[in-house]
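Chapter summary example: a protein plus adenosine-5'-triphosphate.
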Amino acid sequence: MSSARTGTPSSHSEKVVIEVEELSKSFGSRVLWRGVNFTVSQGEMLALIGPSGSGKSTLLNCLGLLDRPTTGVIRYQGDDITRFGRGRIRRFRRDTLGYLFQHYALIENATVQENLEVAIGPRRRRQDSDVPGIAEALDRVGLAGRDKERIHHLSGGEQQRVALARLLVQRPTLVLADEPTGALDDVNTNAVIDILRELSRAGCAVVLATHDAGVRDRCDTVFAVHESSFATIPAREVASPTPAPH
Ligand SMILES: Nc1ncnc2c1ncn2[C@@H]1O[C@H](COP(=O)(O)OP(=O)(O)OP(=O)(O)O)[C@@H](O)[C@H]1O
């Protein structure tokens, strides 16, 4: 099964970044999901939805090589990443992936600047005029001038914004985001999704897990983990749940 699309912002001609084929995950005798099939292309934002405990985070962890599926294949640009050895896993994480996970994976004792320098790495992608430098990325997330502060002195929301700035300077090919707006108000939710959309417009494939219908509706495609025998469908065709009567 492949992802259906709304037609914006990318077209069918975009390159497929991730292909998931017949993936399953079990913990002991408990099957979390099976028959999971979807693709994610350059420029596409895919929302993983499903009730709490349905396995959205576990699926993201499999895509990010933090966990292994029980069966099935995950291809990145044609290569089965579930068969990667340690070296290729390390390079895949460093060169390809951007994480926006609940604990942000920042270096707590280092400064904001140092965290972003680590993300840029030795290849100095700052020379690419389309990729923002550290000062511009911090400005973009509302943390201008905070580069010398240590991560552990920042609030949870500020740390999340550093993680967003990290994505901007890193410009990964694939962004995995687990409940990126879980604890945020509407204004900050929109700001986070704007940045993820900016990355997708620049060619990143974005896969995010969310319980928020507003976030889901801003994605191009939706995959319902708890109904994983269904194909992905365009976000706009997913009906919002009827509010419970008061
Ligand atoms: N290492 C593990 N061993 C056993 N069970 C696990 C393990 N990791 C996750 N699980 C179980 O898998 C189920 C799915 O967890 P997961 O966090 O992927 O769900 P989720 O859909 O992301 O939930 P939420 O929306 O609440 O964040 C849970 O019941 C969890 O306890």
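Key point: Confidence is low (pLDDT under 50) at residues 1-12, 241-246.
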